[in-house]
Structures are given as structure tokens and as C-alpha cells.
Amino acid sequence: MKHFVIVEDQTAIREMLVELLAPIADFECVGTCGDGLSALTLCATTKPDVAVLDIRLPGLHGVELLRKLRVLLPDLNVLIFSGHESPTLIREVIEAGALGFVEKTAGFAEFKKGLESVGRGVPYFGPAVAALLKDVSNSFDPTPSPTLITKRETQILKLVAESNSTREIAVKLKISPKTVDNHRTNLMRKLNLHDVASLTRYSLEIGLIQSRSDR
User: Fold this and answer.
1) What whole-number distance in Å separates Cα of residue 141 and Cα of residue 158?
2) CATH fold label, 2-138
3) Domain topology for 146-214
4) Would you say the pTM of this structure is higher than 0.70?
5) What is the pLDDT of residue 51?
């Protein structure tokens, strides 16, 4: 069972999301709140697997909240759910450690996909956000050379960035999940990247994958 919290300043949206998400198997909402400072207390108390964060929050801005949560709970997966998206904002939340970003205009079905994906530790970006990812990748500082990694590591890097789970990668490459984990750990060490979101960003930068808008 994956536990999640919702941090959203509009009460109606919070209550609606809780009601709509209630039937989803293996996911349980363990708390909601409407401001950034309360979110720190809520997450420290409930220790959720996933935090759904709006960006514009009273008390503590969403990006700063995200940074603090990543220090407080390093294993927490964060899904941004916001009505405001721009290359600059997307860059900020990815650098701060968000694993996914779904725009509010995408609708509930897209949000549900994002929650389920991030709950598995797999990056997910809504259509409008994905369309901006190319601009985001172009604005990052240069990253390590892809020649550092092996052919197998490159295969796994691509599959990770395409939102495949460890088990799915293992099946596709006919190797064990433990081997997949070992390769991913080696990738992060070689590239000096520390989470799946960073691996996804790196894959975009070197052209290994494309944003949805380019497909």
C-alpha cells in the first residue's frame, strides 16, 4: 500500500482529489493540508511514500517546500500538480528533486497516471510539461560524456527514462531486477546523478529520448 499526502491551497480541489482517488487500489491518502509549513509537519508525522504538491502555496512556496522535504524525507517521491508551468519552473522542480509534474489543465486521468507512476518511483510528466522539456534540457549545464557508460547501461538508462519500472526493464532485457538495480546504481555513480528524475533529464540532453512534443 502506497501512502500519499495532498498539499493544495484550494479546499475544493483537495477534497475532490481525495474522493476521486479513494477507489484506486494500493493507494491511500493519509493527510491533506493547504499551506507549505503545515505540509512539513504533515509529512514528518505521516511519512508518506508520495507527496502531491501545488506550487503556489501560502506560508512556504512549493519549490522551497520541495527542497526541505527532500532533506527531511530523502525517499519521498514528489509529484507536482500545478496550474503554472514554464521551462524555468520545470527546471527548478526537477533540480529540487521532483519525480513528476502534471499540469492541472491535463485533467484527472492524467493526474492519476502521474500519481501511479511516481508511486512506483518512475518519472512522469503531463503533456504540456513534456512539451516544454526540450527547452528545459537545453538550459541545463553540460553533463558528463555518454562515453562513460556501457552499452547495457545505455539500454537501461533509456528504459528508465521512458518510465519503465525495474521489473519491466528486467523482463525486456531478460535479466534479474537486482541486475537492473546494480546497473542503475553504476549509472548514477558514473554520471554523478542522484535520482531517476536526473537520469531522465540527462537522457533528454544527450538525445537518448525525446519529449512527447517531438514524437
Assistant:
1) 20
2) Rossmann fold (3.40.50)
3) Arc Repressor Mutant, subunit A (1.10.10)
4) no
5) 97
